[in-house]
């Protein structure tokens, strides 16, 4: 029964990983990845690895989404720019 | 297994379950709301776990999440401002409910720990969590009005 | 002496750190000289340590020497092969830095130290991987050399092909590294250790009399996948031509000359140390796996190499073909074959780096590396042409080059049927290079015609419109750029001729190997004859191809093979998965017994 | 290859890999088992050196060489991003327009920025005592600075963040880690040997010999590296424009 | 075999199976991706499988973190610290590699005008 919380975290990670792959739009995927990062941090906590949980929170909840969203923005701005110049 | 872990399990199951469903489906606005809620729901879960495992040092995790979770949401609100401006996502009922959950958990834990350094830390976590959560909701529904580029 | 082992990676890394910290205010020659100094210091260190490597140097970083046979630290192994690889890496790094001296266009402006710093980081990663005796530590340095290699490959961001090639390279290799990490995690779960020798003990203890089980097999397959992706074995090879054809020339010299070979070295090291005991994989199954992959790699690389007209791409495919030959030699699990592979790798590094250096000169002089459009244009580059042609002959195995010696020794060890692969692959790749030499530097034969009719997708990789890597097109070849390939070629020659060198290499490899056999390595009559045969075949093929282009043009059956090289990263990942399954299937009999 | 053929390959290869992985999982020791020889030795070694957080001891003492490699990967990746995201020949910089931010968001950012910065430093400083350390704290501190971008605009961020200084800081702190390693050799011991300083009192900030120093070097390295990394991406996303000007 | 032992058997391998599943899902997404940024995200998913596997391997029933700032050494069983250090390294490596890959993707978008691998029509043959 002590494992119930581990099972919950594991299932959440599995579900979020599936969602991260299934959402093909990068902005939406970034949102899922942010939540996946949080879920992984929970999993690491229940596996008694708070150090790893902390770094996963630091990297996963703000840094990686920011990097992905900045790339998305650059790519989109480019294509929008390209369309403008064609018109 | 003790009551704290049981409570944490329930909070985390509900929290991660709903945010998984919310972040994976539906329009963009709803997904951002779900991302914001994930912070608000998981953070109390982490606090409860820390109490359940009887490890005060685990509170740092909740502190970091309460600090960085809203920052993550602000990133999305900022960089998706154009899309969100059309949707104006609002879920004040849910937001207040989550904030309330955070407040209750922090209050209960404070009562259990009693005055001291740990209590101060808990209060900081609580303030950051509730404040950040409400603020991030505000930012989503139009916190960055004039972002074209920059 | 063992205290100095960790410095092999640490010196270049510190050099890179200081170069970045101070490079902003340094004039370019100073920054480059500092980079060369750091690389040369490391090379000197490796060479100084080499004579002391018998018995192998063992260092526990941080002074965590084992107590009661157990340690919590990281172990480094300084035996002949590991120090030899570190020395090779360092010398080739020095050559690459010398080649890029002053002329190579090194953006970003005002950061004179950036390019040498990246090269030094690359060197540090490779040296660290070479001396690693701990599986996770090997993974860390593996990742370091990969990460630097991605950045270096995409260095010329103005070029569409460069960034695409770099991304394919990065995605496939990162995935490969994660396969390896999964394998390491499985091994840790089984044995509770990370040092390679301790893992082997753990596997033996766990297996008892039953031999390996599914977990050992899976761990073997996963770790091997990571290493074989790096060494570009079929079907993991797709990233290599894409990356090597677009990377800056000095980087190509390192990628083709040593990085890919480090993958083969890793296979040798990991199998020999971790999986060769009774708890590991039986020899027959490993031989089957590696030889099948090696033969496939040699064949695919050689055939694809023949049909290229983009010179750097052609060289990249020849690297694949030769990696296949190295894999076969490592795969037959014989002391003598290991010696052959070691000599072959040494000779090949010099020859292949020299070839890339010559191709780079063509690129900087004419702004193209297309064999067709360069026809006869480089007649007056006599020195470069001579180097290129001799390197082509050496690639085919001309005695007394180190490649020829390595090939001869390997052929003798692997046995008659596999010798055919050696002769065919080296003849075909050598012929392709000689064909290019004859056309480009001598203007032999009719000018090759563009294909009639519709333009094929494959023609987009002709190499016709590439940007030179120097700030402006070279009018004459700078002395550094011309000398480096000649020196490299001379070094490859020295591997074969210097008396006693081959014997030393063979002894060092045998001592580090697990077979407990010492074989004598020398030229034999059969070996020389086989080498001459493949050289003659190469010359003949090249002559026919130049004078009668129609006779040896790409037949229809070769087209599907070329189409597989699709440039699509999804395909490459799919092949990676298939390759893992193939490895599993080939090694499966190990657990069915 | 068409998508269909690729999917078949993925199914074939993925099926094989799945079979291998599942077969291996079934042979693994049961989850939660009591047998962790290396882990138990590591705990004993950490306590012998008066380090309360065993993970910090493994990272900065027992397996400090891994951490050196890892830090170098970060350093190399940042250098790589500086190279890859440089301003290309056909691009120019276009200062972004100032951006309006709702007042509560601005206030929140300005209040949280110092808190996050202090938290980052706290997490770094307590690395060898409680969960956390140079990596985690460094990322937090670096992220904190970027609240300036969220709370105000890019120009405000650029004022508090001289990228050049951070680039040099990144290189210097990476070098500092390596120099600490060399110090061990120069003192006649092993590379990265933790024998130069006294181990101090258990569970205090100065315990653990060189561990706090290595931890601090990593913290500074990570913080600078993340700042430089984000600066390059922000430059691309916000400032660098294609064409020769419009 | 009672249902209780079946449950135990499942929890004994579930974490490993979840790691394997996450790894496979990530590989699938990487192979079939139509957007390079999405592909980089899928690679991150693959990597999180390695974290899960490593930490699952190091877990000990009833154990707690080997961090002795708030508990007395030896008072409680602790989990394996080594895998945690390895995972920590892995997390940092993952984040940096992601950054490098995204930098390359940004440049691809500039030079090719697309991030759809199906439309990148160079480097064939």
Automatic annotation (TrEMBL), chain A:
Pfam family of the protein (one): MbhD
Record has Transmembrane helix as a keyword: yes
Lipid bilayer topology: Multi-pass membrane protein
Keywords assigned: Cell membrane, Membrane, Signal, Transmembrane, Transmembrane helix
UniProt signal peptide: 1-19
Record localization: Cell membrane
Record field: transmembrane: 29-47, 54-72
Naturally occurring in which organism (per UniProt): Streptomyces spiralis
Name used for this protein in its record: MrpA C-terminal/MbhD domain-containing protein
UniProtKB/TrEMBL annotation, chain C:
Biased composition (Basic and acidic residues): 447-463
Single Gene Ontology MF annotation: NADH dehydrogenase (ubiquinone) activity
Keyword Isomerase: no
Source taxon at top rank: Bacteria
Pfam family, one: Proton_antipo_M
Keywords: Cell membrane, Membrane, Transmembrane, Transmembrane helix
GO biological process: ATP synthesis coupled electron transport
Residue ranges crossing the lipid bilayer per the database entry: 31-50, 83-101, 113-132, 138-155, 167-189, 214-233, 245-268, 288-307, 314-335, 341-363, 384-402, 414-437, 486-509, 529-551, 572-592
Gene Ontology cellular-component annotations: plasma membrane
Membrane topology listed for this record: Multi-pass membrane protein
Compartmental location: Cell membrane; Membrane
NADH:quinone oxidoreductase/Mrp antiporter transmembrane domain sequence ranges: 132-410
Keyword Cell membrane on entry: yes
Residue span of region Disordered: 447-472
Membership in a protein family: Belongs to the CPA3 antiporters (TC 2.A.63) subunit D family.
Protein name: NADH:quinone oxidoreductase/Mrp antiporter transmembrane domain-containing protein
TrEMBL record, chain D:
Assigned keywords, A-Z: Cell membrane, Membrane, Transmembrane, Transmembrane helix
Domain of life: Bacteria
Transmembrane segments: 71-88, 108-129, 135-156, 168-193, 213-234
Segments forming domain Na+/H+ antiporter MnhB subunit-related protein: 106-227
The keyword Membrane appears for this protein: yes
Membrane topology classification: Multi-pass membrane protein
Cited InterPro entries: CPA3_antiporter_subunitB, MnhB
Pfam family, one: MnhB
Similarity section: Belongs to the CPA3 antiporters (TC 2.A.63) subunit B family.
Name assigned to this protein: Na+/H+ antiporter MnhB subunit-related protein domain-containing protein
Organism: Streptomyces spiralis
UniProtKB/TrEMBL annotation, chain E:
Chief location bin: membrane
Gene3D superfamilies: 1.10.287.3510
Transmembrane spans: 13-31, 36-59, 82-104
InterPro entries on file: CPA3_antiporter_subunitC, NUOK/Mnh_C1-like
Subcellular compartments: Cell membrane
GO CC annotations on file: plasma membrane
Membrane topology: Multi-pass membrane protein
Organism in which the protein naturally occurs: Streptomyces spiralis
Protein name as annotated: Dehydrogenase
């Amino acid at each position: 029964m002590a494992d119930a919380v581990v099972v919950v975290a594991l299932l959440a990670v599995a579900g979020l990983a599936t969602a991260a792959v299934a959402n093909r739009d990068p902005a939406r995927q970034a949102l899922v990845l942010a939540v996946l990062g949080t879920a992984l941090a929970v999993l690491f906590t229940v596996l008694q690895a708070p150090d790893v949980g902390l770094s996963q929170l630091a990297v996963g909840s703000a840094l990686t989404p920011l990097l992905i969203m900045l790339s998305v923005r650059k790519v989109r701005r480019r294509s929008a720019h390209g369309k403008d110049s064609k018109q | 297994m003790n009551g704290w872990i049981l409570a944490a399990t329930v909070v985390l199951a509900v929290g991660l379950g709903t945010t998984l469903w919310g972040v994976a489906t539906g329009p963009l606005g709803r997904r951002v709301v779900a991302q914001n809620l994930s912070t608000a729901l998981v953070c109390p879960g982490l606090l409860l776990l820390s109490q359940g495992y009887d490890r005060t040092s685990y509170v740092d995790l909740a502190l970091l999440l309460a600090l960085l979770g809203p920052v993550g949401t602000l990133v999305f609100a900022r960089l998706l401002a154009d899309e969100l401006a059309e949707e104006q996502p609002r879920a004040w009922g849910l937001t207040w409910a989550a904030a309330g959950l955070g407040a209750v958990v922090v209050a209960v834990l404070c009562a259990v720990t009693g005055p001291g350094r740990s209590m101060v830390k808990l209060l900081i976590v609580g303030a950051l969590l509730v404040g950040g959560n409400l603020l991030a909701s505000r930012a989503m529904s139009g916190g960055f009005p004039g972002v074209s580029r920059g | 002496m063992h205290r100095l082992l960790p410095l092999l990676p640490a010196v270049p890394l510190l050099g890179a750190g200081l170069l970045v910290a101070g490079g902003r205010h340094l004039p370019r020659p100073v920054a480059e000289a500092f980079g060369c100094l750091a690389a040369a210091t490391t090379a000197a260190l490796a060479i100084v340590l080499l004579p002391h490597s018998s018995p192998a140097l063992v260092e526990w970083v941080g002074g965590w020497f084992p107590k009661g046979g157990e340690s919590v630290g990281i172990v480094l192994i300084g035996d002949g092969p590991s120090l030899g690889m570190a020395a090779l890496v360092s010398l080739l790094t020095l050559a690459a830095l010398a080649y890029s001296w002053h002329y190579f266009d090194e953006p970003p402006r005002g950061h004179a130290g950036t390019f040498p710093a990246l090269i030094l980081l690359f060197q540090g990663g490779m040296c660290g991987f070479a001396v690693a005796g701990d599986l996770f530590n090997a993974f860390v340095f593996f990742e370091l050399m990969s990460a630097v290699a991605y950045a270096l490959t995409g260095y010329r961001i103005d070029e569409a092909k460069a960034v695409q090639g770099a991304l394919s390279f990065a995605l496939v290799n990162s995935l490969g590294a994660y396969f390896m990490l999964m394998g390491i995690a499985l091994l840790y779960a089984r044995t509770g250790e990370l040092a390679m020798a301790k893992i082997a003990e753990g596997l033996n203890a766990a297996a008892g009399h039953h031999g390996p089980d599914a977990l050992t097999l899976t761990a073997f397959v996963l770790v091997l996948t990571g290493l074989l992706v790096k060494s570009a074995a079929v079907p993991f090879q797709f990233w290599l031509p894409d990356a090597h054809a677009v990377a800056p020339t000095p980087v190509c010299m390192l990628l083709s000359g040593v990085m890919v070979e480090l993958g083969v070295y890793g296979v040798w090291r990991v199998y020999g140390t971790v999986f060769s005991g009774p708890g590991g994989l039986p020899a027959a199954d490993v031989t089957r796996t590696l030889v099948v992959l090696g033969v496939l790699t040699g064949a695919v690389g050689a055939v694809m190499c023949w049909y290229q007209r983009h010179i750097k791409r052609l060289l990249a495919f020849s690297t694949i073909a030769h990696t296949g030959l190295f894999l076969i030699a490592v795969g037959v699990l014989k002391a003598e074959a290991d010696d052959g592979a070691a000599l072959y790798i040494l000779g090949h590094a010099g020859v292949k780096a020299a070839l890339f250096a010559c191709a780079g000169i063509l690129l900087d002089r004419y702004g193209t590396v297309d064999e067709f459009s360069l026809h006869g244009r480089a007649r007056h580059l006599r020195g470069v042409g001579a180097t290129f042609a001799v390197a082509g002959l050496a690639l085919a195995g001309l005695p007394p080059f180190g490649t020829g010696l390595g090939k001869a020794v390997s052929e003798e060890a692997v046995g008659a049927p596999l010798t055919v692969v050696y002769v065919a692959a080296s003849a075909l790749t050598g012929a392709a290079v000689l064909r290019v030499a004859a056309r480009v530097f001598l203007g032999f034969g009719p000018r090759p015609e563009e294909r009639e009719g519709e333009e094929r997708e494959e023609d987009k990789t002709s190499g016709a419109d590439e940007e030179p890597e120097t700030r402006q097109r070279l009018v004459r070849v700078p002395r550094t750029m011309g000398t480096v390939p000649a020196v490299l070629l001379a070094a490859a020659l020295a591997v074969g001729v210097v008396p006693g060198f081959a014997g030393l290499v063979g002894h060092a490899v045998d001592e580090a190997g697990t077979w407990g056999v010492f074989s004598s390595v020398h030229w034999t009559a059969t070996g020389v004859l086989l080498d001459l045969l493949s050289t003659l075949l190469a010359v003949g093929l090249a002559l026919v191809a130049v004078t009668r282009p129609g006779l040896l043009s790409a037949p229809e059956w070769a087209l599907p093979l070329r189409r597989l090289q699709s440039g699509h990263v999804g395909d490459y990942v799919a092949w990676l998965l298939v390759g893992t399954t193939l490895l599993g299937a080939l090694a499966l009999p190990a657990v069915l017994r | 290859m068409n998508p269909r053929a690729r999917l078949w390959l993925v199914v074939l290869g993925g099926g094989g890999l799945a079979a291998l992985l599942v077969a291996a999982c079934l042979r693994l020791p049961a989850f939660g088992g009591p047998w962790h020889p290396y882990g138990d030795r590591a705990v004993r070694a950490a306590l012998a050196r008066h380090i309360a957080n065993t993970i910090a001891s493994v990272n900065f003492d027992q397996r400090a060489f891994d951490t050196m490699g890892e830090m170098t990967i970060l350093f190399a990746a940042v250098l790589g991003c500086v190279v890859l995201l440089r301003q290309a020949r056909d691009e120019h910089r276009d200062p972004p327009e100032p951006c309006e931010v709702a007042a509560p968001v601005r206030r929140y950012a300005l209040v949280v920025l110092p808190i996050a910065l202090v938290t980052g430093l706290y997490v770094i400083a307590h690395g060898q005592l409680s969960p956390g350390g140079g990596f985690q704290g460094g990322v937090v501190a670096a992220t904190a600075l970027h609240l300036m971008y969220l709370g105000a605009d890019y120009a405000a961020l650029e004022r508090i963040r001289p990228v050049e200084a951070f680039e040099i800081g990144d290189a210097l702190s990476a070098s500092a880690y390596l120099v600490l390693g060399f110090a061990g050799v120069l003192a006649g011991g092993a590379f990265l040997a933790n024998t130069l300083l006294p181990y101090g009192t258990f569970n205090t900030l100065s315990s653990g010999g060189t561990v706090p120093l290595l931890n601090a070097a990593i913290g500074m390295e990570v913080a600078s590296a993340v700042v430089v990394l984000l600066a390059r991406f922000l430059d691309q996303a916000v400032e660098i424009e294609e064409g020769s000007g419009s | 075999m009672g249902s209780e032992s079946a449950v135990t058997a499942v929890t004994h391998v579930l974490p490993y199976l979840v790691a394997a599943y996450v790894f496979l899902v990530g590989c699938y997404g990487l192979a079939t991706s139509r957007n390079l940024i999405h592909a980089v995200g899928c690679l991150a998913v693959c990597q999180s499988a390695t974290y899960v596997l490593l930490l699952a391997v190091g877990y000990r029933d009833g154990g707690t973190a080997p961090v002795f700032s708030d508990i007395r050494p030896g008072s409680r069983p602790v989990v394996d610290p080594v895998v945690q250090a390895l995972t920590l390294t892995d997390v940092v490596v993952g984040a940096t590699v992601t950054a490098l890959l995204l930098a390359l993707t940004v440049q691809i978008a500039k030079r090719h005008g697309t991030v759809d691998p199906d439309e990148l029509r160079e480097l064939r043959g």
